[in-house]
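tool_log.txt
---
The assistant was asked to compare two proteins side by side. It first ran the structure predictor on the initial sequence, then on the second. Raw inputs and outputs are pasted verbatim so the downstream comparison step can read them without reformatting.
(1)
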Amino acid sequence: MHSSSNNSLYHNNFISNYAGEVGDSYSSEPSILPSINTWDNGYPSSGNYWSDYAGTDTSSGSVNTTSGPDAIGDAPHHIYFPQWDEYPLMVTYHGFTAGPYDFEIVSNSSVANLTIAVWLSSPTPHLQPGQQFLWFFVVGETNTTGFCRVTVPRAVINGTYTVFVDGTQVPVSELRESNNTHAYLYFTYKQSEHEVIIVSEYAPAFLAATMMAFATFITATTRAKQRHSRQRCWL
């Protein structure tokens, strides 16, 4: 940044970035004003992905006091004196919009087709007809360990979160710094190509309200899709 201050820059992917290519400018020339900007959005929102960042991720929390990864480097990334990205991402950032909601995924997999969907088929232990869930796909190098950190607006899904990868439940942790509006979820899996579903614990009151709203649509759609074992509607 040249002679430009008071900007906030975060959730960018800086690929093949080397010292001096991205940063704030300083000069000994009095006519050239220094640039002083903010390069992260605090914790747990995070900063940017820097492909030359060589830090590790073994702990979480704003001051790394909790054991376990959170997709954010344990040490700041030095940009240009005296500027730092205090919460650099370990892997690339993916931003999606579904309906009126924004979703953030930090993952070492490629991520595609994030959708808010409603389950239309027969009841399962975790999904009831009319229940809303988050649905997307990940692709990564086979037989390596993949991970996702997903920011879920609680207005879409709220409660105790369950994650399925190709229909199999996987352990998921919710970062302690999650708040009233967003949950920050972290989970791992063996990479290849997978379908991911995130759902909250079944709530009968929510189901009743949803069924009232979608009853006519669900009946019509179910008849048209009876040959499918899994039925969903996209919002």
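(2)
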Amino acid sequence: MKPFNGLLLLVIITFSSYHLKNNNQKLKEYFSIPAVAYNKTTYQLSWSAHPADNYYKQEYLPAGEKPETYSHMIMIEAVTGDISLKDAVRAKINELEQRKKTDPTVNYQVIENKTTGEYLLDFVISQSAGNAAAVTEWNTYRYLKLKDKSGKKGIQLFAFSKRGYGGGTTNFLQHLKTERQKDINIFAAYEIPEVNIKAQ
């Protein structure tokens, strides 16, 4: 497989948790992170992918949750190569701006950490079924430079996602309105696990 160019890397790293899963794919652990302890909950590796030579993605769920109906999820992604954090964030924002044309739920904010160079992006999206919102999703992404022990350079993404479904989306959004900043503060202060890409 040929390496993706810089533009395609930006497209890849904008993926949210709305994606198709290959249930026949053997689960592989690429980052030496089999589980994530976050905010008093343990998230176990539930899905992984290596769709390009320089792109890796892993998803983690609490015990008992399924990818199609999850309420909370952790995502970790890594892209190796020459790509800036600012360009990756800008690509995601462009995606969200395009989505606004068909998804009135979309809203977002970006916070830059001047000390570390990290960016934090939090946003809300929804997926409709007829005139009702079937799924409403809130995500927080932290974009930071990859710190792989083998010397690989690139971008690491650490993300937290929450969902509300069907008739529960109203309560989900009301809860989000009062708890969003608190959740952002917890996420921003969290010590992100170090990604070390395993040799394949």
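---
observation on (2): The beta strands are 35-38, 41-52, 55-61, 72-80, 107-112, 119-129, 132-145, 154-165. The longest helix spans residues 169-189.
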